[in-house]
Automatic annotation (TrEMBL), chain A:
This is Tat (Twin-arginine translocation) pathway signal sequence containing protein. Pfam families: Ferritin_2.
Automatic annotation (TrEMBL), chain B:
SUPFAM superfamilies: Ferritin-like. It comes from Sphingobacterium corticibacter. Pfam families: Ferritin_2 (PF13668). This is Dessication-associated protein.
Length: 238, 277
């Protein structure tokens, strides 16, 4: 849980990049190398491939423009789906019937999102990613729900933060249709941890606004869980 | 003001009104036959859908229009929870009171935020009538009615913001803020749904996510709030043809996985029931 706690701290911190004018690739490299508070950024191809793209050879190249954003969403949905499949396969000790029902629903939603993006992206889709959940103790309710909370809040912040980068109105609407379901998940997981924490000050600011993070920040947070080397060099971000 | 008077006065002004809404005449007559017993089982949210069908309604066309549209909905929610929270004996003490206070504070913050963004362009707060002309006479005295309307408002809010995404496309500041409000409304909706499930009764099987067209347990009267939520086709992909963990996705999972938008006229229809002329 050490990693998830560190990434939680980072995610819920103020977005200091918010006013910057878009993050250039070199800045991204710098940022990645700078070691953001306990978050390991190990596998992103952008970190170590500065000399000419090897796009055709990379099964995890996100593409550019809206396709890249859809692949970004697809990657996050793959992550969540893989996590909840494990959760449903190895129920933590003392899982109640209601918890089982809710977590199975959430699993199915995330798998539906994953399969939707795969179908919608067609040949533009990245391959199936491999994940590392070694930081999660699946027999522990605290560990599972704590990780689920981070993933759901992360997902909400990802869609909220990427919306304005989407050029196509239909893609934007699809992202909107999914993000509110992620927010429902986030509320439920939080209430399972502590009833009434569905939208507490950890995620909602004094203006009543939910979390929002750039693709760069979200991918940094997710990196410890992603084994595959993803190539996000052309992913729009800021 | 009551709905029967509205229909009568419209019929006087516009003799064709009854003809235009004729497919629903029987339903309207049935509702009035219930007289004083009009209650959750016959919520009149469907009624303004008839007005809309008959007359149409304007929708936002620019960024300020969307912001004022959002502000109107937030005014409604903020006042609703403010009255509810301050009504003694309505909400059980403990977690329920705390949750409603949390939601109230967010809706009040949304109002202030949107007014701040709009400045002198902000529309004024309408006068609300949460009894909708008497149809919900017990909205602030019966906790289940209060929660049922809260759920309808939250689920409507989630759908309303989604419906305006196109106008805000590419707008870093406004679209992002709208999305940040939108997901808060979804968190509220999930929590209120869970509160209703805990109450049992008609809401005993309520899930935090929306299953099909109108899973509220409230009745056909809130159909306009959930119209179209049974859609299973996303971006040209029929979700029920895709394979999940155990076979193809059911329509229930397919509809829960995606929240649907509502058009501005449909939302204003619902909201206008609670706005005094």
């Amino acid at each position: 849980m050490k990693e998830t706690n560190a990434l939680k701290d980072q995610l819920y911190a103020e977005d200091s990049d918010h006013t910057s004018k878009g993050l250039q690739r070199r800045n991204f490299l710098k940022l990645a190398g700078g070691g953001l508070a306990g978050v390991a950024l190990l596998n992103f191809a952008s970190c170590n491939k500065d000399d000419g793209p090897d796009i055709n050879g990379n099964e995890f190249y996100f593409g550019s423009g809206d396709i890249a954003i859809l692949n970004y969403a697809y990657a996050l949905e793959q992550l969540e789906a893989a996590f909840y499949i494990e959760v449903a396969n190895k129920p933590f000790s003392g899982m109640s019937d209601l918890e089982k029902q809710l977590l199975t629903d959430v699993r199915d939603h995330e798998v539906a999102h994953r399969e939707f993006f795969k179908a919608a992206l067609g040949r533009g889709a990245i391959n199936s990613l491999e994940f590392d959940f070694s930081a999660v103790n699946f027999s522990s309710r605290d560990s599972v729900l704590g990780t689920a909370k981070v993933f759901e809040d992360l997902g909400v912040s990802a869609y909220n933060g990427a919306g304005w980068l989407i050029k196509d109105e239909q893609y934007l609407l699809l992202a909107g249709k999914i993000v509110s379901v992620e927010a429902r998940h986030a509320a439920v997981i939080r209430d399972l941890i502590s009833n009434g924490s569905f939208a507490n000050s950890e995620v909602i600011d004094s203006n009543g606004l939910d979390v929002s993070n750039s693709p760069t920040k979200v991918l940094q947070a997710a990196a410890p869980f992603i084994k595959s080397k993803v190539d996000v060099r052309d992913l729009p971000t800021y | 003001m009551n709905l029967q008077n509205i229909f009568e006065s419209i019929s006087q002004v516009d003799p064709e009104f009854n003809e235009r809404i004729s497919p629903r005449r029987q339903a309207i007559r049935n509702m009035f036959n219930l007289g004083q017993k009009v209650s959750l089982a016959a919520l009149p949210l469907a009624v303004t859908a008839l007005f809309n069908k008959a007359y149409g309604q304007s929708a936002p066309t620019d960024v300020n229009g969307v912001l004022n549209y959002a502000l109107t909905l937030e005014y409604l929610e903020a006042e609703y929870y403010t009255i509810g929270s301050s009504t003694g004996g309505l909400i059980p003490s403990g977690p329920a009171t705390e949750a409603i206070a949390t939601i109230r504070d967010h809706e009040v913050a949304h109002v202030e935020f949107l007014k701040g963004v709009l400045g002198s362009n902000a529309v004024a707060k309408p006068n609300f009538d949460f009894t909708a002309g008497g149809a919900f006479a017990n909205v602030f005295s019966d906790y289940d009615t209060f929660l049922a309307l809260a759920q309808a408002f939250e689920d409507t809010g989630v759908r309303a913001y989604k419906g305006q995404a196109g106008i805000l496309k590419g707008n870093r500041v406004v679209l992002t803020a709208a999305l940040q409000i939108h997901s808060v409304e979804a968190r509220h909706a999930a929590h209120v749904r869970s509160m209703r499930r805990a109450r049992g009764g008609a809401a005993a099987n309520q899930k935090p996510w929306i299953t099909g067209a109108n899973d509220s347990g409230i009745g056909a009267a809130v159909d306009p709030v959930y119209a179209g939520e049974d859609n299973v086709a996303q971006g040209g992909v029929d979700i029920t043809t895709l394979t999940g963990v155990s076979g193809r996705f059911t329509p229930a999972i397919a509809t829960q996985s995606f929240d649907e938008p509502l058009t501005a006229p449909a939302v204003l229809d619902i909201a206008s029931l609670f706005i005094q002329a």
